[in-house]
Amino acid sequence: MTNDLTAFLKARFDEDERVARADRGYSQEWHTEVARDDQHDGGRACVRSSQGDVITGDVDVERARHIAHYDPARMLREVAAKRQILDAHADIPGDGINFTRAEQDRAEETLRLLALPYADHDDYQEEWAP
């Protein structure tokens, strides 16, 4: 199971990275504050990069804040961190020689938790649920 789960996680992380890099501004820092767009109703806003590029126009303020919070640069940092967690835990399950059963169980639980955000993916297996 661990090999299948590890392969599943690597594929999802690769997908997340491709999406983040596909955004034309992935190397830019997006503002976490949203500027009101005076050309629209008071509830409209846009998200701008630190270089002034607009990535959205005519969206509601809450949606603009969401976009700014989950910017591509942040997604790339998150993918890198998840890959490090995966690398630190992926080899532990199944190696009863060098690791205790408790260490193996904790490592497998970590992998299951990493997979949980992808539970709606077609390749996710219910047996991986924590």
Question: Could you characterize what this model shows?
Answer:
The structure is a single chain. This protein is mainly alpha-helical and 130 residues long. It is 48% helix and 5% strand. It has four helices and three strands, in the order H-E-E-E-H-H-H. A hairpin with a 7-residue loop joins strand 1 and strand 2. Helix 1 packs antiparallel against helix 3, helix 1 packs parallel to helix 4 and helix 3 runs antiparallel to helix 4. The two termini are 13 Å apart.
Spell out the key features of this protein.
130 residues, mainly alpha, 3 strands
Helix content: 40-55%
List low-confidence stretches: none
The fraction of residues assigned to DSSP E strands is 5-15%
Number of helices: 4
Give the overall pLDDT as a whole number: 77
Anisotropy-based shape: elongated
> What structural class should be given to the helix and strand makeup?
mainly alpha
Strand arrangement across the biggest beta sheet: 1-2-3
Count the E strands. Answer: 3
Distance between the termini: 13 Å
Question: What is the H/E string?
Answer: HEEEHHH
Q: Could you tell me the radius of gyration in angstroms?
A: 19 Å
Biggest sheet character: 3 strands, antiparallel
Topology record:
Layout: H1 2-22, E1 35-36, E2 44-46, E3 59-60, H2 61-69, H3 72-89, H4 101-115
Antiparallel strand pairs: 1-2, 2-3
Helix pairs in contact: 1-3, 1-4, 3-4
